Amino acid sequence: MNWGSGAEFFSMGGYGFYVWGSFLVTAACLAAEPLLLAARRRRALERLQAERQRHEAAA
Do the Cβ atoms of 46 and 40 come closer than 8 Å? Predict the structure, then answer.
């Protein structure tokens, strides 16, 4: 594919909204995934620690 200018490249023959929108959504998902996983891990560790403390207090 050959584009005459940068504007033609970004417009992608009229499909630029869909092309660049899909790139943006994909990048947002890739950026959010590690953050969401870290939060889930932190909550799981907090729950395990609380359960361990309850178990030790009961013993």
Answer: no
Inside any domain, residue 57: yes
pTM of the model: 0.67
CA torsion, ordered 3, 19, 14, 7, to nearest 10 deg: -40
Domain with 37 in it: 28-59
* Alpha-carbon distances of 3 from 6, 10, 28, 44, 46, rounded to whole Å: 7, 9, 27, 51, 54
d(CA 35, CA 20): 23
Residue 11 falls within a domain, yes or no? no
Q: What is the pLDDT of residues 1-31, one digit of tens each?
A: 677 898 998 899 899 999 999 999 999 999 9
